[in-house]
Fold:
Amino acid sequence: MKRRDFLLCASAACAVSLAGEASPVLAAGDGKTIALKKPEGGKPLVQCLAERATNRAIGRSDVDLDALGALLWAAWGVNRDNGKHVVPTAMNRQECMVFAVRGDGVWEYMPKEHAVKRVLDGDRRGAFDGSGLILLYCGPKDERGFAAMHAGSMYQGAGLMCASLGLANCVKWQKHDTLDRELPLPKGWQTFITQSIGKPAA
Ligand SMILES: Cc1cc2nc3c(=O)[nH]c(=O)nc-3n(C[C@H](O)[C@H](O)[C@H](O)COP(=O)(O)O)c2cc1C
Structure:
C-alpha cells in the first residue's frame, strides 16, 4: 500500500454497547479508523512453523502499524474474494472478533475493511501484562466450544506471523475478560483468551 488513510469518524463514540449495557462515556473510543496494510512475502511457512514458540520476554513498546496489520490479517483476515477468512469457522458463521490493546487505545479489527476502529480510549495494557500489544480473541459462549476453537486458530495464525516478523508472543490466560463490559461485544459474547506480543525484550 502506497499510503495509509487515516479516517476520522466524528462523534462515533457510543455510550451504549451492542451488548445493551451502558459503557462509561469517558472510556468510549472516538471511532477513529486506521486502514492497515496486508502482509506480503515473509519467511517460508515451514520456517515459521519451526520457529513458532512462546517467548515471555516481551517488550513494552508499541508494535508498529505494519506489523499490526500483518498480525491481525494472520489471525482473522479475509483471504478470499468470497469473504471467507484465514481461519475456518463452524458452519462458516464467522462468529469471531479481535481487539488490539495498544498504548493509544483499544481497537476493534474490521476484517472486511482490513482496518481497526478505536473503541476504547486510554492505555489499557496495564489491565493485562503491559506488553506492547495485547490481542483479545472473542466469540459467543456456546455449548460445543466452537468459539474457543476459533480463538485457538486465530492465536496460532498470529503466533506464526510473530515467527515471521521476529516478534515475541505468549498466549495468556490473564484477566482475559477484564474489558468485556466495555467492549462493543454482541450479547452473550466474551473474550476467550489473550495473546501478548512485542519486540523480544531479551
Ligand atoms: C490456551 C493457552 C493458554 C496459555 N496461558 C498461558 C498463561 O496464562 N501464562 C503463560 O505464561 N503462558 C501461557 N500459555 C503458553 C504455554 O505455557 C506455552 O504455549 C507452552 O508452555 C508451550 O510452549 P511453546 O508455546 O513455546 O510451545 C498458554 C498457552 C495456551 C495455548
Notes: The domain at 6-198 is CATH 3.40.109.10 (NADH Oxidase). The CA atoms of residues 168 and 200 lie 5 Å apart. The longest helix spans residues 146-165. The longest strand covers residues 189-198.
